[in-house]
Specification:
The protein is α/β, with parallel strands linked by helices. It has 24 helices and 30 strands. Among the domains are: about 100 residues, no CATH class; about 280 residues, Rossmann fold, CATH 3.40.50; about 60 residues, Phenylalanyl-tRNA Synthetase, Chain B, domain 1 (2-Layer Sandwich), CATH 3.30.56.70. A hairpin with a 6-residue loop joins strand 7 and strand 8. It is globular and about 85 Å long. Keywords: Isopeptide bond, Metal-binding, Methyltransferase, Nucleus, Phosphoprotein, RNA-binding, S-adenosyl-L-methionine, Transferase, tRNA processing, tRNA-binding, Ubl conjugation, Zinc, Zinc-finger. Its main location: nucleus.
């Protein structure tokens, strides 16, 4: 009747419980009760009664070692090999044996590892030479679902896949659940459970990176600004992992947002639900799912409800429309851009985080060409080059869906590239955005750069577009064509100001300094001239048809329904925006260290910014490079101002052996203050040398050296 009776079998002096279906073939009585598949090497036992799982099926490598620890001797045998195959040894050698010969070739399924087994569990047909039966008792695997024994690893993987396709994922073994060793991490008043190896994406389903806290805060500020424009908005976290981002949205913005957290991994979805309950949030499941434990149906909805879905990100973005979509896959986001722009609503926001910095930062240029269709090289402005590469891919994906974009924010830091764009529906907006994707001419000698002019006509000498004269003074070809890249603005000043206000309101301390730098960079001004309060400009600021909310304007003033009215509004908004914000920030930046003059001490960065500003150029610092200067000055003028205010170091002067005086300025030091000069003069006056010192400090150093 299919009932299995467990029996103790003594192997390697260990008492191990194994099913009767796994006894040796020489027990003829049990052999009649077991059904056998004739055309395969699989011994299957079909029983609805649970049984003890085989010792080769474990969760951790340490569990296998514990089976060997049952023996109190100093030398311990392998629990999965007979004595004839592997003799008892010390623990360190046994650990290597279990790891290399059993654990590495195991088959994983739902947290369990089906390790390879060398015990006499599987009946083998008798060989011509009867003495070689034991030698032919080869390695095999035990299925965790149906207790079948299979020889090859590839056959075992296919066997498990057939179970999954049939919907048979429940194990028939009596499995004792291991206690969950979760860690609770708190970020922005939100608690999430993570696994101990949560920082390694290859080894865990619940990937949580604490270094991406700044990225999550920036995305939250962008969503908070959008929530202030229209309520409620439907937002999607397409790659939930632990659900930390969606939980922060729902916990702080409450009824302003309807949060959907999606992940294609079943373990991640389970952890997202547990984290929702941990933060006292209700879970809204799909119609197909039935779960009455702390969940609500489609009819009951409130501000503390989060919808959790389990499907591919492309599928959910094809099926449903959202106002805010965030993409944060492991690596590049280009595979999900077409789906994201397909159903995103007009004037909605799409944000994407790209972590494939090896290709974006020109370390793997062939990968950047394959993923983004862009040719890039390593330059001094490589981080901004990466941001413009991603935006160019976003623009092309939006244009394929007859949508245009406006870049609200572009951040490139050490671990990620974040791009936030607003979606503008219509072919006109798509054409305007597509025209801003151009090629870049980059000089490899002086690193001067300029975007190629609009038009399809081929120029006879494209080097004429570069401001530098390296092509005439240097042999060979000096420039390279990079791109296609986004040539428009990377920031929206009004949006960044409102993000800064949201960061102050919600106490996001890490995002505030960066947002201030971004706002200064968007206006191309220094921090001294930046002001967070500009009441005179608030009523004038307009972003692609969306008026900034002021006390004199209501929420309905910028929501115009109807296709024709919205297009007219966008056209009028674009005209007014060109008139008011005609001066975009200049593209790219220069590194002051890269262009410093040898043998000269360059001025401090803040002083150099003032010098460029006094020369009549727009100038600001940039978040892409701490020593970078964003300015509309050509490289030649940049070097001229840098040379003018640099001081010589006089390294070679002391090498020639001039007369060294105690009051002389050392290498790399600035001119001493007047008080220090007087002190040194007083000290030397006692020795009768005050006249010499006075002559030294009243004349310049070249004159003094010539006198010597």
């Amino acid at each position: 009747d299919g009932v299995v009776v467990s029996e103790k079998v003594k192997s390697n002096n260990l008492d191990v419980k194994i099913p009767e279906s796994e006894l040796e073939a020489d027990e003829k009585g049990a052999e009649e009760e077991r059904p056998r598949e004739s055309d395969s090497n699989i011994l299957d036992v079909s029983s609805d009664h649970p049984r003890d799982k085989h010792i080769s099926i474990q969760r951790h490598l340490a569990d296998l070692e514990k089976l060997a620890d049952l023996r109190e001797d100093e030398k311990k045998p392998c629990p999965l090999c007979p004595e004839e195959k592997f003799k008892a040894c010390y623990s360190h050698k046994l650990h290597r044996h279990l790891q290399n010969l059993h654990w590495k070739v195991s088959v994983e399924f739902e947290g369990y590892r089906m390790c390879i087994c060398h015990l006499a569990c599987r009946p083998v047909k008798p060989n011509l030479v009867g003495d070689q039966t034991l030698a032919k008792m080869g390695a095999h695997y035990h299925c965790i679902i149906c207790s079948a024994t299979i020889v090859r690893r590839t056959d075992m993987i296919g066997h498990i896949n057939r179970h999954v396709n049939k919907g048979e994922t429940e194990s028939r073994f009596i499995t004792v659940r291991a206690p969950k060793s979760y860690e609770v991490v708190k970020e922005s008043a939100t608690d999430v459970q993570v696994l101990p190896n949560h920082c390694t994406p290859q080894k865990t389903d619940s990937y949580f990176n604490p270094k991406m806290k700044l990225n999550r805060q920036l995305i939250f500020c962008a969503l908070a600004v959008l929530a202030g424009e229209r309520k409620p908005i439907e937002c999607l976290d397409a790659f939930g992992a632990t659900g930390i981002m969606g939980l922060q949205w729902a916990k702080h913005l409450r009824s302003s947002v309807k949060v959907t957290i999606n992940d294609c991994n079943e373990n991640s979805v389970t952890m997202i639900k547990e984290n929702c309950h941990l933060n006292k949030m209700k879970v809204k499941l799909n119609i197909k799912e039935e779960d009455n434990d702390g969940t609500v149906g489609d009819r009951e909805e409130n501000s503390d409800t989060i919808e959790v879905t389990k499907m591919d990100a492309n599928v959910i973005m094809h099926l449903r429309s959202f106002d805010f979509i965030h993409l944060d896959p492991f690596g590049t986001s280009v595979n999900y851009l077409d789906s994201a722009f397909r159903n995103v609503r007009n004037l909605g926001i799409v944000s994407l985080t790209s972590t494939d910095i090896s290709s974006l930062y020109a370390k793997a240029q062939h990968v950047a060409l394959r993923h983004y269709g862009c040719n890039i090289v390593r330059t001094e402005y490589y981080k901004e080059l990466a941001a413009r590469t991603v935006i160019a891919a976003v623009t092309r994906a939006a244009a394929r869906c007859n949508k245009g974009i406006e870049v609200l924010l572009a951040v490139a830091l050490e671990h990620f590239v974040l791009v936030v764009v607003r979606v503008l529906r219509g072919p006109t907006a798509a054409d305007d955005s597509a025209k801003k994707v151009r090629y870049l001419i980059h000089c490899q000698w002086c690193e001067e750069r300029v975007f190629q002019k609009e038009g399809n006509m081929v120029e006879e000498n494209p080097y004429q577009q570069l401001p530098c004269d390296c092509h005439g003074s240097m042999p060979g070809k000096t420039a390279v064509l990079l791109g296609p890249l986004w040539s428009g603005a990377l920031f929206n000043t009004g949006f960044l100001r409102r993000m800064l206000l949201e960061a102050v309101q919600y106490g996001l301390d890490e995002a505030q300094p960066l947002l201030k730098t971004l706002a200064c960079e968007a206006e191309c001004t220094t921090l001294k001239h930046f002001s967070t309060h500009s009441p005179g400009d608030e009523n004038k600021q307009e972003e692609c048809g969306v008026y900034i909310k002021t006390p004199n304007t209501s929420a309905e003033s910028y929501l115009v329904h109807g296709k024709r009215k919205s297009e007219e509004l966008l056209r009028g908004a674009a005209k007014r925006q060109r008139a008011e914000h005609s001066a975009e920030h200049p593209p790219f930046y220069y590194n002051i260290h890269r262009h410093s003059i040898k043998g000269m001490n360059m001025p401090k960065l803040n002083k150099f910014l003032n010098y460029l500003s006094e020369a009549g150029y727009r100038v600001s610092r940039t978040h892409f490079d701490p020593m970078g200067v964003r300015t509309n000055a050509p490289l030649a003028q940049f070097k001229t101002v840098l040379m003018k205010y640099s001081t010589p170091t006089y390294v070679g002067a002391q090498a020639e052996g001039p007369v060294h005086l105690p009051g002389e300025i050392q290498v790399g030091e600035e001119v001493p203050a007047a008080a220090e000069i007087k002190e040194e003069e007083a000290e030397l006056a006692e020795d009768g040398k005050s006249g010499v010192v006075a002559a030294v400090f009243t004349q310049s150093y070249p004159t003094h050296c010539a006198a010597d």
